[in-house]
């Protein structure tokens, strides 16, 4: 259909704009944020430093980082209207739906967009990055029938998020792993949620409303929602000894295996490697090993079986291991995709700010394939 009509379904391979925020090198399995590999950032950096780097386009010096961190900390408390939106949501609602509403509610008081005032837009973004984490923790606690935990300004972004989620100051090792997971999810060039954010922001809509659109896009199981689905899959497999047969059946019935496949990567997603490394370290310290073992067998069997077919380009993506890591930190699977948003909000914001320097509304063309000259038939004469 798409080839015959001369367009690219799903915009595959279409270059929609230029960016210097990040680059996905799909053939070699490499991801860079403004030129630096994610492996190096995961080893040496922090989420706050990467968020600054992404927003401002330069690595902060110590003074700049202190200022940015102070601003993030000072912004953590949610506006009352956002708290009210969260509290009004039914407990049965998916947290991504609540989060989308909550971030839209930040727009109640957000100043109108001024494309020329980049400094002001970066401050708005910093506030949203900070508040989105508070919103995710609060949504989770309200769902679990727990009192919200007020932010703690002695803690880093990652530590404070885990503290607001669990009500306990996290241990240093787990907090660092979580910080690295946030770094790894921060940006990924023109993925679907970033593209959604860009489309909305290209109309000069407010930052909060553009980010709200991105949250909607991220929620889907083909995108960020896959991390929750991977754990559903592991749970439905039941035990490691069932995993091999489960994969054989999935491949035979052409079922989609969540956490596998990617539009751009033609080899292992580099983030999956780093996440797996951290997960293995954490598993070694825990009694519960079944989820990891089940996923390990799914992973190895998929790669082995696909390598014998023409679909040898299907590899694990970032969503394959992240949930197993979060589960071992005591986090419920329904909160995994909101946690993806806790990180990616810095990428969404950076793309919008970069795009606004030279904005043009996104408005692609459509290939019309309907009839050209139909006549209106009165309702009583219709079959
Ligand atoms: C953060 C992220 O968004 S990472 C991606 C998270 N999403 C997932 O893990 C969900 C599972 N994966 C998928 O659905 C897809 O691989 C996507 C959405 C990520 C990419 O989609 P596309 O680039 O459109 O790939 P497309 O769907 O064309 O796949 C090509 C072929 O590989 C198959 N394929 C792709 N992914 C998988 C998978 N996970 N399991 C089994 N087969 C797969 C497709 O069925 C298709 O086969 P066909 O040619 O016989 O129809
Ligand atoms: O790039 C994509 O299509 C999806 C992805 O991995 C991401 O957004 O992190």
From TrEMBL:
Pathway this chain belongs to: Carbohydrate metabolism; tricarboxylic acid cycle; isocitrate from oxaloacetate: step 1/2
Catalytic activity: oxaloacetate + acetyl-CoA + H2O = citrate + CoA + H(+)
Active-site residues, Swiss-Prot/TrEMBL: 262, 319
GO molecular function term, any single one: citrate synthase activity
One Pfam match: Citrate_synt
GO cellular component labels: cytosol
GO biological process terms held by the UniProt record: carbohydrate metabolic process; tricarboxylic acid cycle
UniProt-listed Gene3D superfamilies: Citrate Synthase, domain 1, Cytochrome P450-Terp, domain 2
Annotated PROSITE patterns: CITRATE_SYNTHASE (PS00480)
Keywords from the named record: Transferase, Tricarboxylic acid cycle
InterPro entries xref list: 2-MeCitrate/Citrate_synth_II, Citrate_synth-like_lrg_a-sub, Citrate_synth-like_sm_a-sub, Citrate_synthase, Citrate_synthase_AS, Citrate_synthase_bac-typ, Citrate_synthase_sf
Family: Belongs to the citrate synthase family.
Official protein name in the record: Citrate synthase
Provenance organism: Silvanigrella paludirubra
Species classification: Bacteria, Pseudomonadati, Bdellovibrionota, Oligoflexia, Silvanigrellales
